Amino acid sequence: MSRPPNDRKYTATHEWAKVDGDLVTIGITAFAAAELTDITYVELPTVGTRVEAGRPFGEIESVKATGELNSAVAGEVVEVNSALAQEPGLVNSDPYGRGWMIRVRAADLSPCDSLMDAAAYEALLAGGR
């Protein structure tokens, strides 16, 4: 499994958030994708939807399980990775790149301050989470 990139923050529920100004790109980690195994469907919100920090914005389904996708920040969805509708497996093959899920124009970036950096996330995984 690939190491989590240092250029983003991580949640305890295995989402990542990459901040660029007031835009935050959100996806799931390689650990989460590996745990789900073969991802078969990703349900994402439409552009213009308001999301809340720590609250679900969509669902992800695999041959093994179905789970919620949680937002790291509150704000408005300004872009959705439409490629996942046809190729949900991108989340498995490239979770930190082409498998991103949504971009949110954050109303407040302060929730990102409480997220883990890559080293803390790796420590969480090493502890069995």
Secondary-structure map:
Layout: E1 9-10, E2 15-20, E3 23-28, H1 30-36, E4 39-43, E5 50-51, E6 56-62, E7 66-70, E8 74-80, H2 83-86, H3 90-93, E9 102-108, H4 118-126
Antiparallel strand pairs: 1-2, 2-3, 3-9, 4-6, 5-8, 6-7, 8-9
Can you walk me through this structure?
- By secondary structure, the protein is an alpha+beta fold.
- The protein is built from 4 helices and 9 strands.
- The strands form 2 sheets. The chain has a 6-stranded antiparallel beta sheet with strand order 1-2-3-9-8-5. Strands 4-6-7 form a 3-stranded antiparallel beta sheet.
- Strand 6 and strand 7 form a beta hairpin.
- The chain is globular, with a radius of gyration of 13 Å.
- The protein starts with 8 loop residues before the first strand and ends with a helix.
Key words describing this protein structure:
single chain; 129 residues; alpha+beta; 3-stranded antiparallel beta sheet
